[in-house]
Amino acid sequence: MRTANSELFKTEVSEVTAEVGAQILKATGDGDEAQALQAVIGSFVASSALDLGMSPKQFWQDYGARILGEPDVKRDSKGNLTEVEGKSPAQWKNDAFSQSWGSLEKVKQFIVRGAELVYKLAPTSREEVENRLAGLIGKKLTFSDGHSASFSKASLRKMLSGKAVAKSSSPEVHNFVLSNIEQVARKAILGWKKPDTKEGNLKDVKRYFSAIECEGSTYLAKITVKSYSDVKTEDKAYSIESVEVHSFEEAQFWVEKNAQADEYEKPVDPTQDTTGGVR
Predict the structure, then answer these.
(1) Is 178 helix (H, G, I), strand (E, B) or coil?
(2) CA 120, 94, 48: angle at the middle one, nearest 5?
(3) Where in the chain does DSSP place strands (E)?
């Protein structure tokens, strides 16, 4: 029986990855790309073969063509992609992503489309964001479930802090999503609630999630709201962070990673439910 530690298993993995590397190098002419992809695919082959109870060679023989095979593509003389299925690589990638989650009706409910955005993605200073949101201070953000949270100077200060910005893909992405926070909140769904009593009458924090599509790219946003046990104390918008994602699976992974950080094992699945959960 082959195991990950057996010499035969290791030898077969090495042979498969060497074959993969040679094919990629021949197709692209890029040694660095071939080496990187060879390592990734080698790891995938090893884990998949173990899961399926197959030898690495058998697995690659049965599934290798599907993994390594390309769709209808065109490359230049250096092996770089110039066209995929009649489209530019960037357009094909965006269309494929839109199809992977844009076709899911319930997911569409929490996607902010480009036409709904007040501000587009562009280099923006802290001062510009402050000016953009000055009129929102003292008002409330309303979420897709009807819940609302006050937006104050303290909210804006926290959301523009270095710690908050560092959690996003880049300052540019962070400021872009923050500038559109009203539109983002309106589409955001409740992921889960996390009990939190670190502050006086603090009851819990709520994690709301939304997606934003802008100029061929997709971003995820998480807005944190603080709720209090004293009914006279308004819920407060506390923080925001955003990342660029390139697939539904990548988006799901980011949400699940946030859930694990909160020790919440089953975050809302936007394809099935939009009500959120309580840990």
Answers:
(1) helix
(2) 130
(3) 73-75, 81-84, 111-112, 139-142, 148-151, 189-195, 202-214, 217-228, 236-245, 277-278
pTM for this prediction: 0.61
- Residue pair 227/205 in contact (Cβ under 8 Å)? The answer is yes
Please state, in angstroms and rounded to a whole number, the distance separating the CA atoms of residues 191 and 75: 42
Q: What is the pLDDT of residues 196-219, one digit of tens each?
A: 767 778 888 999 999 898 888 889
Residues pairing with 192 in the sheet: 207, 277
Delimit the domains of the chain by residue range.
7-69, 104-278
| Nearest-angstrom CA–CA distance, 165 and 159 | 7
Q: Decide: residue 181, CB within 10 A, 0-12 exposed, 13-18 middle, 19+ buried.
A: buried
What does the angle CA 243 – CA 245 – CA 184 come to, to the nearest 5 degrees? 55
Rounded Cα distance between 149 and 236, Å, is 5
